[in-house]
Amino acid sequence: MPDPHAIAVMLLTLGALYLFSRDFIPIETSSLLVVAVLAIGFSLFPYRGTDGSELDPIRFFAGFGNEALIAICALVMASQGLVSTGALAPIGRVVHRVWQISPLLAMGVVIIVTAVISAFMNNTPQVVLMIPILTAVAVRSSMSPSKLLMPMTFASQIGGMGTPIGTSLNLLVIGSAASLGVERFHMFDFIAPAALAAIPGLLFLWLIAPRLLPDKHPHPSFVNASPRIFDAQLHISDSSPVAGKTLADAKKLTQGEMSVVSVRRSQDLVISPLPDVILRAGDQLAVRDTSEQLMEYSRVLGATLFSGDVRVDAEHPLTAPNQQTAELVLTPASPLRDRTLAQANFDWHYQLIPLAVHRPGEEEALSHTMLRDVRLGVGDVLLVQGPAEQIEALKKRSEMLVLDATSNVPLTAKAPLALGIMAGIVLIASLRIAPVAIAAICGVLVMVTTGCLKWRHATRALDSSMILLTVASLALSLALVTTGGAAFIAQVAAAVAKSLPPLAVLSATMLFMAMMSSVISNSAAAVIGTPIAIELARQLGLAPEPFVLAVMFGVNMGYATPMADNCNLLVYSAGGYSFGDFLRVGVPLTLIMWLALTWVLPQFYPLG
């Protein structure tokens, strides 16, 4: 039977999994809470192992310096260098040319190229790069982007299974297994079984998945959003009811909805729109709103509406020259993440007007919140309007996805150098000249010093939730193994599995991890599942390596729900998908990959 420490850790693990799967508390807070509880708990109630050694609570913070976490962060930053320089932009041009010849062939090229690149590049920045490319191709070809985006992101996840650097999950599992005494996997150790199993999965995504997906236009909630914003002037006359009253009084007449940019009193005098400004006849209020609202303000205030120097009437409607609308998708590296538009001072900083925000499944909740007070998150889509040059400048900043379906990804002079640096990282790690963490850190340093990557882009690419979740998961893993909690869970699983063939146990482990990654954080499932799988293998007298790979492959199969992976959230919004669309494609893909890997994995890693 487990001792009190093991029982407490197992209960904490269940509590952590519950917190990680809920949105009412930030995952960073949940992760830090887990680490704090472990550190405080083992400080107040010291634990001594069977050999008499005491578990030092400081060891629970070791995850911050874990080799796997360092490698993950460095690779994410290096991948951001490829995005910033547009190093993969030629792919968009090739896809567009092939698409003109044969859309079916072009789709196959997208699927294969995405999978291959994902084996050597973190899939989140790659998906960020491919969304505008495929959206533009779809629009130019009179297709719905929804037919392309989900197969593309699933292909990136399948390709990411092939090498340790393909996804952060791979490095997490491999690093955790190495700390538990399993021989470390190197660059191409498991690429063969992953590549063979990928064949039926990629064929499904190429030939069948697009037929299962409906024709959809992204973000249907934007159809009736604020259609157009205009700049205009309200000229106050002698007969206006607000002449001689304060600006605050004028706003009250519009129910507080009128937004005044400035008050022009004469050719050379412009007054800040302070609430206590006394309005006079002849003042011009610079306002910005929809045409319907502006006409209403004109009526309520008894003012005359002008657009520039032209009075607005039936023959001279409002105009918005050089104004465009665009949709901005928030990525993990976006500076708007976890902030409101008011906190970010969005209008001033970007010189764009926010019109609406779209969050899949939460349209009704958002409709009751002021737009500028909505706290934005990864995958949210912001509809904006502004000058064409400001939208173009935002694309070049690489801070958010700009979905206007018109532009190509810019290719800079540093692109070949960035590709060469990434290739060097892969080469050094594959030849075992240095570990992945060291190769990646050196690669980031070279990218920064050569101008391929700016530090502000590199640090924004880092995900605080991923960092703290990794630390918490490693701390839980240490506690489970040290106190015997993992061994107890493995004993229970081994007792249940004793009557099953070893292959069935391996297959069940993989399927269970795939199911877990669809409902909780796949990182948490990876690091918590790894020690239990290793203990299970040892309890049954089987080789631990195939079980480690079963966990790794399983947590990468998060296809069935949007929340299973950051990339799923990105295409969820960009493609206008529903939850059912993910089930329709993700469940059969999960079954295909599970069956293929169940057959392939033992061929390369015998269980005995």
How does the SSE layout of this entry go?
Elements: H1 4-20, H2 27-44, H3 67-85, H4 89-101, H5 103-118, H6 123-140, H7 146-159, H8 168-179, H9 191-212, E1 230-235, H10 247-253, E2 260-264, E3 270-271, E4 284-289, H11 291-301, E5 304-307, E6 310-311, E7 323-329, H12 341-344, H13 346-350, E8 353-358, H14 363-367, E9 381-387, H15 388-397, E10 401-403, H16 415-430, H17 436-449, H18 455-461, H19 464-483, H20 485-497, H21 502-519, H22 522-539, H23 544-555, H24 566-574, H25 579-604
Antiparallel strand pairs: 1-4, 1-5, 2-3, 2-4, 5-6, 7-9, 7-10, 8-9
Helix pairs in contact: 1-2, 1-19, 2-19, 3-6, 3-8, 3-16, 3-17, 3-18, 4-5, 4-6, 5-7, 5-9, 6-7, 6-24, 7-9, 7-24, 8-22, 8-23, 9-25, 16-17, 19-22, 20-22, 21-22, 21-23, 21-25, 22-23, 23-25
Structural summary, described in words:
This protein is α+β, with helices and mostly antiparallel strands and 608 residues long. Helix content is 57%, strand content 8%.
Short structural description:
With 608 residues, the chain is an alpha+beta fold.
Structural class of the helix and strand makeup? alpha+beta
Quickly count the helices: 25
Rg on CA atoms, Å? 28 Å
* Unreliable sequence segments: 219-227, 405-409
Shape: elongated
Percent of residues in β-strands: 5-15%
* Order of strands, widest sheet: 3-2-4-1-5-6
Helix content: 55-70%
Terminus-to-terminus distance:
28 Å
Total number of β-strand segments?
Answer: 10
